[in-house]
Amino acid sequence: MTRGYGQYCPLALAAEVLCERWTLLVLSRVLDGCTQFNAIHRGVPRISPAMLSKRLRQLEHAGLLKSTPARRGLPRTYAVTAAGKELESIIMDLAAWGQQWARDMCTDDLDPGFLAWSMHMSLDTARMPPGRTVLGFEFTGAPRDCRRFWLVNEDGAVDMCLKDPGYEVNVCVRSDLRRFIEAWRGIRDLRAEIRGGHIEVIAAPTLARRFPEWLKKSSLAGYPRRRPGRELSLLAATTRAGV
pTM value? Predict the structure, then answer.
């Protein structure tokens, strides 16, 4: 059972459910549309499977998630309840606050697996060519075992691959991991980084020009940094440059 605060205050009672490590992230992934254990885990790649199972059970017990028992050959599926759905705007507001006021990122925060998951959820496939388009990403400054990943769009269905899918790569993107994440979050300007050669896009000219149109930035990129620090300085420099 979750340790309580010993207060009848509704905020304390809510915090008992929501403020344990990983809980809000797990709930957020289900709100994002991840319905199966493996899909949720891909969206929270640093949680252990045992801890993810525990948090899913706790969220069910709290009445925020419901699950459909696994049938033969099919995995258990999860969905938010009405109570869980009401937290969606609160979680979004908290994320927007974090984009503006949370601490600057450190090296340990630069998780390529989460970047891959985030990007595969937000490609603008309507702007991409029909058929199969394969995007390959190569990062310096990333852990040795996760420096490359691929996104495969097949007529609007996007797969995230941490191992080479074996298809010809149509667009290859090379960058320092921190620099790319800063562009993804809106702290740097993606097109300016490509023009300056800091983010390298290797493709046929038509595809290279269109790549920034396909890659929707983080949904929080529109909230500018407000906390003083390195990232605010980068954003201010980008603004002064007029990009």
Answer: 0.90
